[in-house]
Specification:
Number of helices of chain B: 8
CATH topology of the largest domain in chain B: Rna Polymerase Sigma Factor, Chain: A
Strand content of chain B: under 5%
Largest sheet of chain A: 2 strands, antiparallel
Shape of chain A: rod-shaped
Distance between the termini of chain A: 138 Å
CATH superfamily of the largest domain in chain B: RNA polymerase sigma factor, region 2, helix turn helix motif
Order of helices and strands of chain A: HHEEH
Structural class of chain B: mainly alpha
Distance between the termini of chain B: 55 Å
Largest interface: A-B, 22 and 27 residues
Oligomer: heterodimer
Chain lengths: 110, 164
């Protein structure tokens, strides 16, 4: 390396040392060396499980729901007692075990 | 190297790594911070692995440089100067001549990189070649041209200051 090269190098070294000195004032950002985890997903996991259980419970119980009739049914029956006397028996029911067509009596009695 | 050891070494190199990232991003501080985060994420996810063939600093600097170039290409910000293109030194306006950063930005890309790696970060030409991913002979050529060009720029700056 000749004298000229040495001067050239020194010139450059001076330039860079001045620059480095100036850069000491640079604001270095915080060291953030960590994996970006999607922690929100894990936070919501128990809530999701609970919601699924609730939904399942609701679906299971909703099948067993009994629907009440809007009004009770009144059944008027003509009954013949042991004295051969006929009388009406009136009763109310919320359901009907056997259903007979209202016109079926016409076939048997008349 | 174990993950904890690597983390400690990277922590020690953080300030230098940030400055290098900033230099790779045309001195854009926000972009440099973003690039450095991408680099750390690459290391954590194992996309960038340290195989121990070079020093940690050389490897980290190479990853930063590669990530910055990748990002510039993605964003279409890259306008590289031709490698063979030599510097045309012209009279610069006052505000351009003033700062070190502006002065180095006047060099072609590869010359700028080799100057920064050797003179600013204290790497050898061999290590600079590793960071830049080019042959040592090519690095030497860039280095010689860069020294001449930068010296001329510095002299121009001084002459300008004296005249002013």
């Amino acid at each position: 390396m000749n004298k000229r090269d040495n001067i050239e190098e020194k010139e450059l070294e001076l330039f860079f040392s001045e620059w480095k000195e100036k850069d000491k004032r640079l604001e270095i950002p915080e060291f953030k060396y960590k994996r970006k985890t999607n922690s929100n997903i894990w936070k919501w996991l128990p809530v999701g499980i609970a919601a699924a259980f609730l939904m399942g419970f609701w679906l299971m119980t909703s099948n067993e729901t009994e629907y009440a009739l809007e009004s009770d049914m009144v059944i008027i029956t003509l009954v013949e007692d042991e004295n051969q006397e006929q009388r009406f028996v009136i009763e109310t029911k919320s359901s009907l075990d056997v259903w007979e067509a209202p016109s079926s009596s016409l076939l048997t009695e008349f | 190297m174990k993950p904890n050891q690597l983390e400690n070494v990277i922590k020690e190199l953080h300030a230098e790594a940030y400055i290098w990232a900033r230099q790779c991003c045309n001195f854009d501080a926000c972009l440099a911070e973003d690039i450095l985060q991408q680099v750390y994420l690459k290391i954590l996810e194992g996309k960038a692995r340290f195989n121990g063939q070079s020093s940690t600093k050389t490897w980290l600097f190479a990853v930063i440089r590669y990530t910055a170039i990748e990002n510039f290409k993605k964003e279409n910000h890259l306008f590289p100067l031709e490698e063979s293109m030599d510097l045309i030194i012209e009279e610069e306006p006052e505000e351009t001549v003033g700062s070190h950063e502006k002065l180095i930005q006047m060099l072609p890309e590869k010359q700028r990189e080799v100057m920064l790696l050797v003179f600013y970060h204290g790497l050898t030409l061999e290590k600079s070649a590793e960071v830049m991913g080019i042959h040592i002979g090519t690095v030497r050529t860039h280095y010689d041209r860069a020294k001449k060009n930068l010296k001329t720029l510095i002299l121009n700056k001084k002459a300008h200051e004296q005249a002013g």
